[in-house]
Design goal:
5 helices; single chain; 8-stranded mixed sheet; 25% strand; 212 residues; alpha/beta
C-alpha cells in the first residue's frame, strides 16, 4: 500500500544503517532517496525538511527511502566527517536498486546534499538530483561543488533567500557554474531550515520531480 512506512536496517560499510521506507505505487516510475543534515548538529532522517521532501516524492507514487548516516540514531559506526558518509549513500542506492530496479531521484538537505551529491552524480542509476539548503560555509567548514561541473543530470536547487549557511550570492555562483539542465528555486524569506516555509519546499520538489 502506497505511503505505508516500513522500518528496516540496510547493510552499510560501517555496519547496519537504520532506515525508513515509505512504500510507493505498484506502477511507480521512480524510486527516491532522501539524505539528512549534519548528524553532529542533531540531523537525522526525522528532520522536517527531509520529511517534507520525502512526502513530496512519495506523493508522486515513488517508494522513498530515508536512512540515518553512520553513528546517527540506531545506525552503527561513527561519524566520518563526510568521507565515509558518501559510502553510506552508495549503500542506500544499492539497496534501493536491488529492491525496486527503478531509476532513482536523489534528494539531500544541507550536509545530506553536500555528501550525497558526490555519490549520486556519477551513479548511472540516479536520474535526477535535488539539493535543499545547499551549504557553502558552516562553522568555518567550506563545501566545494566543483565535481558538479561534469554532472549533466537534471538538478534542482532549493534555498532560502536568508540561508545563513548558503548565502544567495555564493550559491548563485555555484549554480551558474553547473551544467544544464538545472533549476533554482529561491524561497523568499526562508532560512537554512526553511522555518515556516516547508509547504513551499514540498510544492517545489513535487512540481519539479513530477516532470522528470
Amino acid at each position: 500500500m502506497a505511503g505505508e512506512i516500513r522500518s528496516l536496517f540496510i547493510p552499510g560499510p560501517a555496519g547496519k544503517l537504520e532506515a525508513l521506507l515509505n512504500s510507493g505505487e505498484p506502477q511507480a516510475r521512480r524510486a527516491a532517496l532522501v539524505c539528512h543534515p549534519h548528524p553532529l548538529h542533531g540531523g537525522t532522517m526525522h528532520n522536517k525538511v527531509v520529511f517534507a521532501a520525502m512526502k513530496a516524492l512519495n506523493g508522486l507514487g515513488y517508494p522513498a527511502l530515508r536512512f540515518n548516516f553512520r553513528g546517527a540514531g540506531l545506525s552503527e559506526g561513527a561519524h566520518d566527517q563526510g568521507r565515509g558518509e558518501i559510502e553510506d549513500v552508495k549503500a542506500a542506492l544499492d539497496w534501493l536498486d536491488a529492491e525496486f530496479h527503478l531509476p532513482i531521484i536523489f534528494a539531500g538537505f544541507s550536509f545530506g546534499a553536500a555528501t550525497g551529491l558526490r555519490a549520486a552524480c556519477p551513479d548511472k542509476r540516479v536520474v535526477a538530483l535535488i539539493s535543499l539548503g545547499t551549504p557553502v560555509e558552516v562553522n568555518e567548514r567550506l563545501y566545494g561543488y566543483e565535481f558538479l561541473g561534469s554532472c549533466a543530470k537534471p538538478k534542482l536547487f532549493i534555498s532560502g533567500t536568508r540561508d545563513q549557511y548558503g548565502p544567495r550570492a555564493q550559491l548563485q555562483k555555484i549554480f551558474d557554474a553547473v551544467p544544464e539542465p538545472k533549476q533554482v528555486v529561491w524561497i523568499e524569506g526562508g532560512d537554512h531550515f526553511f522555518e515556516g516555509k516547508l509547504d513551499q519546499v514540498r510544492a517545489a520538489v513535487a512540481d519539479w520531480a513530477g516532470k522528470i
